[in-house]
Each structure stands twice: as C-alpha cells, then as structure tokens.
Write a structure and sequence with these properties.
The chain has 167 residues and is of the alpha/beta class. 48% of the residues lie in helices and 11% in strands. A 5-stranded parallel beta sheet has the order 3-2-1-4-5.
Length: 167
C-alpha cells in the first residue's frame, strides 16, 4: 500500500500503449514528464497485472516491449497482481457502474479489465488513475464512494498542480 509521501499514480494500459505506439493525438509530452519523474524517483507508478499483460501482449518481440519490461523493474514501479481483494472491489465497481448506466448516467458499464485496473488503484490508494478510456473517465466524474477519492482522467486533464507541469 502507499505509505510514501511520493505520489502514487496508476496507469491504464492505454497510457503505456499511447507512448509506445507514438499516438500523436495523446499528450505524449505529459506522459514523458511523468516517465522522467518516475525515473528520478519523484513519482511512484502502479500498474495492474491486467495492464502489464495487455501492454506486453501488444508490444511483444519489440524494442518498446523490452524497454517496458525493464522499466517495470524499477523500485518505484509496482505491478500489482489481481487477487481476491481486487476482485471484490472490481465487482462493486461493475455493479455501481451498471446502476449508473441503468439510471442514464453512463453510456455503458465498466468492462471487467477496466474494473480490475480501477480496483487495483483503489486498493493501493493511488491518488490518480490515468486513462484515455471514456467510460472510465465518465465513471470517475460520478465520484462514487467506492473510488475513495480516486481521480480518474486523462493525464492532461487531472488538476494535479505543479506535480506534472513540464519542467
């Protein structure tokens, strides 16, 4: 769990993939700033094993895939396994999102992989979950109690103040 004074952020798979695939419609400069802060030990990164698997699967046998596997071995990068605790929180997130969908507050429910990633962020007490997934961002805007204050959004949209300002 995060007992450190260094901020802990969680990345959805799409953040890593945007970087590796050089998706120029994404805020690559912001992602680079965070990568630099992670490299300097100024920021802790949490990845769900789900994200790890998705990134490795898409980047297999490539230079980015090899770099990613090396990057996650840093002491301030945690790849968290999916366990019973994550599964229970993910179930609540999915049920909550389904109720929000039925009430017309969400365009669709939260998919299982996204619920597991979000549950990991909640369990490990990340302050932010960065994603380009519109459903997760929309769910985060509802600020349900299960999120325990977790901010969900695109890296460039979360009001984190000077932490992510380009240097």
């Amino acid at each position: 769990m995060n007992g450190s004074t260094i901020p802990l952020i969680c990345w959805d798979s799409c953040i890593c993939l945007a970087w590796f695939q050089n998706e120029t419609d994404k805020a690559l400069d912001m992602i680079q700033t965070m990568l630099d802060k992670i490299s300097k030990g100024e920021l802790n990164l949490l990845l769900s094993a789900v994200s790890f698997a998705e990134v490795i699967d898409r980047a297999k046998d490539s230079k980015p895939g090899t770099e990613f596997e090396g990057f996650v071995k840093r002491p301030n990068v945690t790849v968290a396994n999916v366990d019973e605790r994550v599964g229970r929180i993910a179930r609540i997130i999915r049920e909550d999102a389904l109720q929000a969908h039925d009430a017309g507050k969400l365009k669709q429910g939260v998919k299982i992989p996204d619920a597991l990633i979000t549950a990991t962020a909640v369990l490990y007490k990340a302050t932010e979950l960065h994603t380009y997934d519109s459903v997760l961002r929309e769910y985060g805007e509802l600020n349900p109690p299960i999120l325990r204050g977790l901010l969900i959004g695109r890296p460039e949209d979360i009001p984190a103040g000077p932490l992510f300002s380009p240097e």
